[in-house]
Amino acid sequence: xxxxxxHLLEVRGxxxxxxxxxxxxxxxxxxxxxxxxxxxxxxxxxxxTLFDLLSGVTPPTAGRILFEGAxxxxxxxxxxxxxxISRTFQLNAVFNSQTVADNLKTCxxxxxxxxxxxxxxxxxxxxxxxxxxxxxxxxxxxxxxxAGALPVLQLKLLMIGCAIVSHPKLLxxxxxxxxxxxxxxxxxxxxxxxxxxxxxxxxxxxxHVMSFMTAFADRIMILHHGAKLHExxxxxxxxxxxxxxxxxxxxxxxxSRKGAQAEEVGNATS
Length: 270
Ligand SMILES: Nc1ncnc2c1ncn2[C@@H]1O[C@H](COP(=O)(O)OP(=O)(O)OP(=O)(O)O)[C@@H](O)[C@H]1O
Description:
The chain has helices spanning 47-54, 77-83, 100-112, 124-137, 152-164, 182-198, 210-216, 241-269; strands at 7-18, 21-32, 36-40, 62-67, 70-71, 85-87, 170-174, 202-206, 219-224, 227-233. By secondary structure, it is of the alpha/beta class. The chain has a domain at 91-167. Strand 7 (170-174), helix 6 (182-198) and strand 8 (202-206) form a beta-alpha-beta unit. It is globular, with a radius of gyration of 18 Å. Adenosine-5'-triphosphate binds next to helix 1. GO terms for molecular function: ATP binding; ATP hydrolysis activity; L-isoleucine transmembrane transporter activity; L-phenylalanine transmembrane transporter activity; L-valine transmembrane transporter activity.
């Protein structure tokens, strides 16, 4: 196999079988540094399973994952996080009985290097990093609120904060704006744009909200039955009749065109 370190992430023939069913099936793709790759597909297409494989939550049945040219296939979740890949989850995955600030300090403390036992107090670096992420995510006013008492938007922002507090090179976002209203989606999108534009974070995002996805992603890959159905520029998505048939539907196609046009207007005026 040729290693291509110019790609931040390279996935080759990735397969995850659960019994006879292949949740991902011989999937190959790459992600370049600084790029935003969007991933879509119908329910059960294998999107979250792909994130589980990339983040070391579960090992693949076959195939290879290269990160910065190094083979990380089969490494555990902590090791992968320490190498610079972080993720969020579809459902709430924070420490409900800790404050927002302590959630971020805990993730900074364990996410940056290998630690087997907690310290008696957080180190200075974790404190500083948590304060930076409170600011970046707009959560400063919620610093002392227990995570379990947060409204939906702030809970999503905290989960994003926990993923970015370790300074990942590659951020995997699993349906980060699902269930949010348009104003809340824009709040999250502003954080993602900051990460991409000012922190150099490469992002892979799974999302069903097509107007957001086509406006934000450079490229979009559509999965179906664990395999690649489509890969191309965000604006080209609605032109593929198979993608419209299997995933977008008529209203999704219209939303994806709207998002792509919004991105073009943004580019033209920026
Ligand atoms: N641990 C598991 N054991 C058995 N089957 C699983 C397991 N995890 C996922 N699957 C199956 O793998 C397939 C892909 O699931 P996955 O959650 O990756 O899809 P998805 O594209 O993320 O769907 P959604 O959009 O609904 O989140 C589904 O058929 C699912 O039931």
